[in-house]
Design a protein that fits this description.
The complex is a heterodimer of chains A (349) and B (76).
Chain A: H1 15-31, H2 33-43, H3 51-81, H4 86-93, H5 100-111, H6 119-128, H7 133-145, H8 148-158, H9 160-184, H10 192-197, H11 212-243, H12 254-257, H13 265-273, H14 280-292, H15 297-309, H16 312-318, H17 324-348
Helix pairs in contact in A: 2-3, 3-8, 3-11, 5-7, 5-9, 6-7, 7-9, 8-9, 8-14, 9-17, 11-14, 13-15, 13-17, 14-15, 15-17
Chain B: E1 2-7, H1 12-28, E2 32-37, H2 40-45, E3 53-56, E4 59-63, H3 69-75
Parallel strand pairs in B: 1-2
Antiparallel strand pairs in B: 1-3, 3-4
The chains are: A mainly alpha (349), B alpha+beta (76).
C-alpha cells in the first residue's frame, strides 16, 4: 500500500451531501461509458469495425472505466485507513499464535495504511510488541503485494475473476510463507540491535479519533495522491494494449510464456521479476501487453507478484534488520509460493 | 525555541513533512530548530513505527503520514 496522506484542506461543510453527489456522478459516469466511447469514435469520423476504430474505441472505453474504478476503490480504502492505524493492527496481532495470526496478519495487510519506506520501522515495531516473526512476515508480504491499486487495475482491465484470484492467491502466499518462516524459528537471524529493541516500549502517543467529515476528506486525499501518481502508467498500459492490437502477432508470447510453454518458463518469469522494482501501476502495461499476446495468466500473475512483492532495493533495506540467512529464506519462500501459485493457475485455467 | 525532529528514512513523505513543518513555522514566526532523524535505531528509539513522525521537545506528536496543515499550525 502506498503513502497515507492526511487531508490538508479543512473538512467540507456538507460532507454527506458532497459524498452523495460524488456517488451519483460516479454511477452516472460509469453507466455512460459505452455511449461516450461510441461518441468519441464517431466524433473522430472512424468506422466502427475498422482496426483503428476498434483500437480507439478500446482506449476511449477502458481508460475512463479503469480510472473510475481505481478512484472508487482508492477512496473507499482511504476511508478504511482512518479506522485502522498500524498501531491498531499491531495491537490486534500481538501475541497471536502461528496459524490464525498469519491469516489475520495477511488480511490486515490489505487494509492497514502502509508506506513502503516504513516497512522496516513497522517490522521492528511489530516484533517489539510481541508479534511473532512468522506473523510479522505474513503482514510484510501481504501489505505491498495485495494492495488496492493492483486489485482495482486487475478488476478494471481483466475482470473481477482475475482480481479475486489475485487476492486469494496473494493472501495464500503471504499466509503460507509466514507460516513456513515461523516454523523455521529464525529469530536468531535478526540483527542484534533489533533483538535488543524488543524490550523497548512503544511511544505513548494517542491519535485523536477522526470524525466522519475527516474520514471522507482522507478518502479524497488518498484518491488525489494515488490516482494523481499512477494515471500516466494506466494510460500508457491501455494505449499499449490498444496499440499493439493489430501490429504484433497474437501468439507472439505464446511459445515462451503460453500454456504450452516449457516448464521452465514460469521460474524464468519469476527470476526476471524478483530484482525488478516498480509499483503495481508500473507493471500493468507489461501485464496488459503479455496477456494480449498469448502469455498464460498464471505465468503473468506470478511475474507480477514477484515484481511487486520482492525487489532488490527492499532486500537492501531489510538487510539493516535481518541477517543474510533470513533474507535468503524470506526471498526463497516467497518466490517458491509464487511459483506454486503460477503452476496451479496454469493447470486449472 | 522549540526543538523539532522529523523522523523518517528519507522517503518523499518524510521530505514533504519536513518542508511543511518548516514552512508553517516560518509563516507563524515561531522560533524553531528543525532537524531530520534518518537513522533507523534513533527512530525506533522514539517508539515510532510508522513514518514520517514528528517529535517536539522530545515528545512524539504525530506519526504515520504527512500531517494535516491545520494540525501543524496547532503546534506553533
Amino acid at each position: 500500500m502506498t503513502a497515507l496522506t492526511e487531508a490538508s484542506a479543512t473538512p467540507r461543510r456538507a460532507p454527506w451531501a458532497w459524498l452523495g453527489f460524488a456517488l451519483l456522478a460516479w454511477i452516472g459516469a460509469y453507466a455512460s461509458l459505452d455511449a461516450c466511447a461510441d461518441a468519441v469514435v464517431a466524433a473522430l469520423g472512424l468506422a466502427g469495425g475498422s482496426r483503428l476504430g476498434e483500437s480507439v474505441r478500446f482506449f476511449a472505453y477502458d481508460t475512463p472505466k479503469v480510472l473510475l474504478l481505481l478512484a472508487g476503490i482508492v477512496f473507499a480504502m482511504g476511508v478504511i485507513h482512518t479506522f485502522i492505524a498500524p498501531e491498531r493492527t499491531r495491537a490486534l496481532l500481538a501475541g497471536r499464535r502461528l496459524g490464525i495470526g498469519n491469516v489475520m496478519a495477511a488480511t490486515l495487510g490489505i487494509v492497514t495504511p502502509f508506506c513502503s519506506c516504513s516497512a522496516v520501522p513497522l517490522f521492528i515495531g511489530f516484533l517489539a510488541a510481541g508479534v511473532p516473526l512468522g506473523v510479522t512476515f505474513s503482514f510484510l508480504i501481504s501489505a505491498p503485494m495485495v494492495n488496492e491499486v493492483a486489485l482495482a487495475l486487475l478488476f478494471g482491465m481483466f475482470g473481477w475473476k482475475v482480481a479475486a484470484l489475485y487476492l486469494g492467491l496473494g493472501l495464500t502466499v503471504a499466509i503460507v510463507a509466514g507460516l513456513v518462516i515461523g516454523q523455521l524459528g529464525m529469530e536468531r537471524h535478526l540483527e542484534d540491535w533489533v533483538r535488543a529493541m524488543q524490550a523497548s516500549q512503544p511511544a505513548q502517543f494517542e491519535a485523536a479519533r477522526p470524525a466522519w467529515p475527516e474520514r471522507i476528506d482522507a478518502g479524497v486525499a488518498h484518491v488525489k495522491s494515488i490516482v494523481g501518481k499512477v494515471w500516466p502508467y494506466i494510460i500508457a498500459g491501455i494505449a499499449l494494449g490498444a496499440g499493439i492490437h493489430g501490429y504484433v502477432p497474437e501468439d507472439f508470447m505464446a511459445a515462451i510464456m503460453g500454456k504450452d510453454a516449457p516448464w521452465w518458463s514460469l521460474p524464468a518469469a519469476v527470476a526476471i521479476g524478483v530484482p525488478m522494482y516498480t509499483n503495481a501501476a508500473g507493471i500493468i502495461p507489461v501485464v496488459e501487453a503479455l496477456l494480449g499476446k498469448g502469455a498464460a495468466l498464471g505465468t503473468v500473475l506470478a511475474f507480477m507478484m514477484s515484481v511487486i512483492a520482492l525487489s532488490a532495493p527492499e532486500m537492501i533495506i531489510l538487510r539493516k534488520v535481518l541477517k543474510p540467512p533470513l533474507i535468503a529464506t524470506f526471498a526463497g519462500v516467497v518466490a517458491a509460493g509464487i511459483l506454486v501459485v503460477g503452476y496451479v493457475f496454469n493447470a486449472v485455467l | 525555541m522549540k526543538n523539532v525532529k522529523i523522523l523518517g528514512t528519507g522517503c518523499a513523505n518524510c521530505r514533504n513533512t519536513f518542508a511543511l513543518v518548516a514552512e508553517v513555522a516560518r509563516a507563524r514566526g515561531a522560533e524553531v530548530h528543525i532537524e531530520k532523524v534518518e537513522e533507523l535505531q534513533a527512530i525506533m528509539g522514539f517508539g515510532v513505527m510508522s513514518t514520517p513522525g514528528v517529535v517536539i521537545d522530545g515528545k512524539v506528536v504525530h506519526a504515520g503520514g504527512v500531517p494535516a496543515r491545520s494540525k501543524v499550525e496547532g503546534w506553533f
